[in-house]
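Re: the 205-residue chain
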Amino acid sequence: MRVRYNEDLSNVKNMAKSIMDLVILSYDRYDLFLTDNNKDNLRDIIEIHEDIRRKASDMERLSFELMALQQPIAKDLRLLQMAIKLASTYKRIASHFEQASLILIDYGLNDFEKDLLKRFIQSEKKMAAASIRAFLENDLELAQITIENDQVNNDLFAESIEYIARENKESKIGAMELSEKVLLYKYFERLGDRIARVADLAARL
């Protein structure tokens, strides 16, 4: 029974890693889209969003079952509690990916905007890899560094809003495109927040 319990705890960690792999894969698809302008990459992200949500629900369910049916010691209980919160964070990440992709399907980007998104992607991919490593290895220092690195995304969001506001003022984009692109950049800024949340959960283990 105890062997099975330990295997299930390992499965929770493996599930957390496999879901983050899908998050990183989504960023890779955005990179491809910005390179070749093939919207099939965006449709792939929307499909991956469903996989992330499903796998996050599976991890959440297993964690609840282990808490209810076993008597986890304090350390294991913290892992299961953080895994449940992590599942919720993953679902939010998936939702942001879906909404950002839908906007990109409808609205084109100029070269400066593509560069902005590439910088978001580079920053957040690095954070994603670091945050899940911190979670799996209980690395408090790495978790704290990852949280601090989210400031890059906050700065990019401010730069993005200043740019599209200027584009609108100069009548290069209309009010509808302005509002949609505010949402687009906000989704990427929130993605950074969500990934920083993964690091925050790691710091609580």
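The chain has a mean pLDDT of 97.
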